[in-house]
Amino acid sequence: MDFFYTYIVLAEIYVLLGLSTNLLVGIVGIFSVSQAAVFGVGAYLTAFLVMQTSTPFLVAVLLSSILCIGLNILVTLPSLRVSGDYFVVTSFGIQLLATAVFTNWTGGTGGANGLPGVPAPWIAGHEFVEPSEFAVLATGGMALGCIAFWLIMRAPFGALLRAIREDELAVAALGKSVLRAKVSAAALAGAFAGSAGGLYASFLSFIDPSSFDLDASIFLLTMVVVGGARTLAGSVIGPFVLLALPQILALIDIPSSVAAAARQLIYGLLLIAFMLFRPQGLLGEKL
Amino acid sequence: MLWLHLLVNGLVWGCALGMVAVSFSLVFATTKIFHVAHAAVYGLGGYLAWSALKHGMPEWAALLVGIVACAITGTLIQKLLYERLDRRGATHLVILIASLGLSAVMQNAVAAVYTSNVLQFGLPWAARTTAIGGVLLTTAQMLTVVAGILSYLGAMWFAHRTVLGKRMRAVASNPFLAEITRLQPRQVHIAVMAIASAMVAIPGVLVPLDLGLQPFGGVPILLTATIAMIAGGVGSISGAFLVAVGIAVLQNLSLLVIPGEWSIGITFGIFVIFMLFRPRGLFAG
Amino acid sequence: MLRISAFALAMALALPAWAQPIRLGAVLPLTGPAAVVGTQEQRGIQFAVDEVNAKGGIGGHLIEVQFEDNQAKPDQSVLLFNKLVDLVKVPVVFTGYSGPTLAMAPLATRKKTLLVNGGAQADALDKASPYLINTIPVLAGELEVLADYLFGDASKKTAAVLYENNAAGIAGRDDFVASYTKAGGKVLAQEPVQFGDTNYRPALLKLGATNPDVLFVIITSGTPQLADQVRQVDAKYMVAGNTFFSDPELIANPNAEGFTHTQVLINAPDGMAAAFKAKFGTEFDFFPKQYYNATTIVLSCIEHLVKAGKPITGEALRTALLEIKTFKGITTTVFNTNTAATQINMNRLTNKTDTIIKVIPPK
Fold first, then answer.
1. Cβ–Cβ under 8 Å, residues C145 and C174
2. pLDDT of residue C17
3. CATH numeric code, B2-277
């Protein structure tokens, strides 16, 4: 059953990341491709706090989230100045810069070697080692994230964010602060990504830059689009589907040495077909 | 004289990067599509040329095979995928994801057929060196420089002196107006994809001639080229080419003062700061 | 993926029902940029398994390997490890790449499943888990031999280091610098290259400017391109490396003349490399050799257990391996700990052949 629980835990962590990406990209329309970098900072900071300073797990995750709030505001700030495609590529640059830091700052991140031995969480005298136990934590984290997302989307603030995506100028003309709304959304997205990072590092016990690179950022975007942009349900179903897909493809028996490449090829075809025939995603709003 | 060697090396690499950046810029400026599968087209050109060569074709014919095959591939991508997506009113994000899917299909098809090992062209003349101003350059490198400059000039000539080029720029600057003035943007898009794909096949063959073929070899090159294209200013061919050369030179010369592991990070760091101050690129009007 | 050759399938059908196949697992990067190494490792495992199955398997049991693709990512590795252990119930999982291996090591300990690494050489793997068996020595031992040879026998007093910027390369750099400095040599400079990037020129130019006596190189692929580029910059220094230099394409490259390297001793019978190439269309280079060796070690342990009538579990395999201790496959591999020791030679590439210039017995 560990296989099943591992899948659940990873998918739930990615749901938090999906919420983070969806909030920025889907709701506010800030096209960020550097969410994996923020996720990575959360993971490395939690690992550092737990390993080097014996900070309790929950406190470490909280501190990581706070740092990621600040960081995410910082990396989305250029969107105020740089718009559209220009911001996408700026965000690209930020992601590549972050990867360079994760890979080469050996003292802080373990560098390309990665950071092994991140201890499992201890909460109230109980150690969450087994995937089945950790699933409780991850489910809790995901539920908190989903509730926060749901409440915000129902509140007037959610409407304001959606309005900014549609017409930023009109919102500003109505006397609403676009800056404050964007910063708040970025902060929330940062908190999601940071806590996801903390859970990820503690669950895997090993982290290295490969989990937080441009591929990972693009994977997050793919999850949001396949699940369905702009909706809570979409952010939840996307990670579950995309993480299960390789396992489903593995059931196709291709008896040759090119099987793995062939499965990736089928994955690509599915992605294309999906974009052609269901561009709004599984549970998304019509675009 | 280390700086001179690094400078020349940067210029050579910049020419290869410049061809990728210019061709990507043609596509992006005209169709507004973030065509990440361009990296896969680049890869395909090299592999097909390699096959042609192994089947006994002369070198120039192999290069031609790569170029023509890529042009056809580009046309098909536009016609069968991007145009359909566009007709269905797909957003940029949706097209980007479809393009990623296409990349996965093409690169894994290449990996399945040719294996993931680094393949070599194994042409002794390509690695032969000639001294130019005290710097030794291989024939493959010199070809890259020549091809880079010619491609750049060719793209400039095409965009500014040909009817199709002028239509392309008109479509790029105002697709809506182009539609109602019967400039037939869809045809222009197909033509531009064909030309850009043919163009990216040139570095797609010349770079592996020097460095070997890898199924995912196009990805890092396209990343840097994208940044060059944006920093140069979307739609500016000179901007894309010159910034690409600039980035390559900067990455090389930066080794004089910093350890190599930081050269990529520093380049992108400079880029991010640059974008904050010139958010529409260096050469944008 | 279940890979059964047609012949093996026929055997399976012909065998009585009690001879269930023995299933092993492997988690390797089979797609993406890291597949250049992972697919070669896969071929090495498959080559060894096919060989045993062609002889009728072990005690009537055919061997099957389920290969899973982790794309060198730690989270996928953990997921796939659990899949193989939970659903397929494999006693052994082959692994490569130090990151994914370090991510799976704690699970191997908890699940008492043997994790067999035949390719990654980062020092951290030595003590990651009692259930992690490294059938290849960590780099430190091999590079100590190299450093001593370069400083002593070849009297190269200064060195520059070109390393791949990943776990393997960094471990190699650190181990070489430590050993070479200890021997009395001076390291003048070190430069990285990104994994998969075969443009070494900027780094070569910068390192060459320090005028070292020897350039130590540790890169997993792209060595033929390195040879071309070293020749191009008209290098005056000697080029030295580790077993990665025993790449047939490098050996065949005239520009690699004089490259010197350590070589984990391989006694592959004549025709083995040709048979491999005929079967897979790729060279029998460093990684398939190592994984062939790793697989034959595991298969010997399985045979030992089958003969003794014991169940094949990760724990039993581990005990058997440490009991048998010395394996005489294509390389003699000795397990005093869970990391192998093997004999190391010094080789030099001359006239497109890889010649032994010095034999260093294991300590």
1. no
2. 46
3. 1.10.3470
Residue B75 DSSP one-character state: H
> Per residue in C15-28, pLDDT tens?
444 578 999 999 99
**pLDDT of B26 over the 80 cut:** yes
Which residues of chain B make contact with C206, given a CB cutoff of 8 A?
Answer: 2, 6, 255-256, 260
ipTM: 0.93
| Residues B39-57 pLDDT 10s | 999 999 999 999 999 999 9
Position A128 scores a pLDDT of: 92
Contact A4, A132 (CB under 8 A): no
Q: Which of B63-67, B259-263, C164-168 has the highest mean pLDDT?
A: B63-67
Interface A:B, Cβ pairs < 8 A:
134
Domain spans in chain C, listed from the N-terminal domain onward: 6-136+268-330, 139-264+344-360
User: What does the block give as tokens for A196?
Assistant: 């996801």
Contacts of residue C107, Cβ cutoff 8 Å, sequence gap at least 6: C78, C81, C82, C85, C113
Nearest by CB to B262, which of A86, A104, A279?
A104
Please list, residue by residue across C315-351, b when 16 or more beta carbons sit within 10 angstroms of its beta carbon and e when fewer do. Answer: ebbbebbeeeeebebbbbbebeebbbbbbbbbbbbee
Of residues B173 and B104, more confidently modeled: B104
Are C263 and C354 a contacting pair, CB within 8 Å?
A: yes
- Element spanning C171, H or E: helix C167-183
Judged by CB atoms closer than 8 Å, whether chains meet at A211 and C75 is answered as: yes
Say which range, A146-160, A248-262, B36-50, has the weakest mean pLDDT: A248-262
Across the interface, do A261 and B95 touch by the CB < 8 Å criterion? no
With 50 as the cut, is the pLDDT of residue C2 above it? no
Residue C4 confidence (pLDDT): 45
Answer whether residue B170 shows pLDDT above 80.
yes
- Number of neighbours of residue B153 by Cβ within 10 angstroms: 12
Q: How many domains does the structure of chain A reveal?
A: 1
Kind of pairing, strands C22-28 and C214-218? unpaired
Q: Give the pLDDT of residue B25.
A: 95
Per CB-CB distance under 8 Å, the chain C contacts of A263 are 31, 69
> Residue A77 is part of a domain; what is its CATH number?
1.10.3470
0.95 surpassed by pTM: no
* Predicted pLDDT of residue A287: 54
Report CB contact under 8 Å: C167, A129: no
Cβ within 8 Å of residue B273, ≥6 positions away: none
- The pLDDT mean for chain B works out to 92
8 Å CB contact between C100 and C27: yes
Residue C10's pLDDT is 47
In angstroms and rounded to an integer, the radius of gyration of the C-alpha atoms of chain B is 19
The DSSP annotation for C261-282 comes to EEEE---PPTTHHHHHHHHHSS
Neighbouring residues of B160: CB distance < 8 A, sequence distance ≥ 6 = B166, B169
Q: Which class is domain C139-264+344-360? A: alpha beta
Beta strands in chain A (DSSP E): 115-116, 122-123, 126-127, 206-207
3-state secondary structure of B253: helix
Q: Give the integer Cα–Cα distance in Å for A36 and A223.
A: 13
CATH class of the C6-136+268-330 domain in this structure: alpha beta
Nearest Cα residue in chain B from C255: B127
Contact C36 B116 (CB under 8 A): yes
* Tokens coding C350: 């001359």
State the residue range of the domain holding A94.
2-277
In a domain, A286, yes or no: no
B285 pLDDT above the threshold of 60: no
Asked, for residue A283, whether it belongs to a domain, the answer is no
pLDDT (0 to 100) of residue A277: 92
As a whole number, mean pLDDT of residues B95-109 equals 95
